Amino acid sequence: MPRKQGSPVDACPNLFKSNALGRLFTVNPRHTECFYLRLLLVNVTGPLSFQDIRKVNGQHYPTYKDACLALGLLEDDNQWECMLAEAALNCTAIQIRLLFAIVLTTCFPARAQILWDNHKDSMTDDILHQHRTRCHDLTITFSDAMYNEALIAIEDLCIVIANLPLSHFGMNSPNRTESDLMNTEMNRELQYSTVEIAAIVARNVPLMNEEQRTVYDRIMLAVSAGQGGFFFLDAPGGTGKTFVISLILAEIRSNNGTALAVASSDIAATLLDRGRTAHSVFKLPLNIQNNPDAVCNIKKQSSMATVLKQCKIIIWDECTMAHKHSLEALNRTLKDIKNNDNLFGGTLLVLSGDFRQTLPVIPRSTYADEINACLKSSPLWRNVEKVQLKVNMRVQML
């Protein structure tokens, strides 16, 4: 089919005439203001200026989009209203936020801010639940800080999907400098009842023997000083090591402090309240034995970095199984995250274990290689303060 070019001009076979003075290029809806300006230009007759084209029935509108809405050139958002209302009945807040982000980036609703205002409670419900759990107060209601956190999550999704901020869709930009309610790592460490933990401490501290109480008091003194420190709790099996470090963790948490509990093995981690493996918490490289200059894969602006900055103590159980490069990587990472050149960035680190048991496993190695890989071979070990448990409580209870 030949292209429509108008009527041919007599005596000029290559020229055509038409009533069109010019043509407007098509505009992608993502270029919002240009798209709405083009929509007005092809529908408004005889506009005198860019200000005049935004005048509808004598009323001047601040944006081209508002003028298009007033002229009825855009569809309303009723279908998105119904969709979000239905999603609120059977979807989680995370799913609704993702759905809303997809609508923003692919469907271009006419009034995105009104959509948010009408459905922000359903998109913030999980944040409210987290805050109630952390504060142990079911009377807490939605707040601007919670809505701000939900907007941050939605904007992150929009950036991932289309590399566009919320302001591009006519919505208010979230404040990323105020709140930390969405820090999942911090929430994980703070989701406990301080009243229950305080009761555990009060009930079990009197049960410690003299040796255990000495270790407990020495480490709690370092916690109170807030100057960091580096301890190794040498404790053979049956001496009550887990009992002591569990009470240290409970004492700090009962006072709303953050205490990290990690272990070199998964089985050992399960014995500690909120314990996790050192590799999962510190993001240690897999082949760390081959990398003497390794660092933990934790970004300075990440959720885990925030936890490490605020924690009062890190307890690393069964540390004797860890490679010395793991300890050195943690030292470099903490110094970088906290901008502190002191040992471990000024963080109090308590290692516990028994070098009489399993040393680091090095594939196809000699006994000398295992000795060289253990923590005692690290230059950091010269800074350690050693505390001991010798009395075997397990034998005495037989």
TrEMBL record:
<keyword id="KW-0227">DNA damage</keyword>
<dbReference type="InterPro" id="IPR010285">
    <property type="entry name" value="DNA_helicase_pif1-like_DEAD"/>
</dbReference>
<dbReference type="InterPro" id="IPR027417">
    <property type="entry name" value="P-loop_NTPase"/>
</dbReference>
<dbReference type="GO" id="GO:0000723">
    <property type="term" value="P:telomere maintenance"/>
</dbReference>
<keyword id="KW-0234">DNA repair</keyword>
<dbReference type="GO" id="GO:0016887">
    <property type="term" value="F:ATP hydrolysis activity"/>
</dbReference>
<keyword id="KW-0378">Hydrolase</keyword>
<keyword id="KW-0547">Nucleotide-binding</keyword>
<comment type="similarity">
    <text>Belongs to the helicase family.</text>
</comment>
<keyword id="KW-0347">Helicase</keyword>
<dbReference type="GO" id="GO:0005524">
    <property type="term" value="F:ATP binding"/>
</dbReference>
<keyword id="KW-0067">ATP-binding</keyword>
<protein>
    <recommendedName>
        <fullName>ATP-dependent DNA helicase</fullName>
        <ecNumber>5.6.2.3</ecNumber>
    </recommendedName>
</protein>
<dbReference type="GO" id="GO:0006281">
    <property type="term" value="P:DNA repair"/>
</dbReference>
<dbReference type="GO" id="GO:0043139">
    <property type="term" value="F:5'-3' DNA helicase activity"/>
</dbReference>
<dbReference type="Pfam" id="PF05970">
    <property type="entry name" value="PIF1"/>
</dbReference>
<dbReference type="GO" id="GO:0006310">
    <property type="term" value="P:DNA recombination"/>
</dbReference>
<keyword id="KW-0233">DNA recombination</keyword>
<feature type="domain" description="DNA helicase Pif1-like DEAD-box helicase">
    <location>
        <begin position="208"/>
        <end position="396"/>
    </location>
</feature>
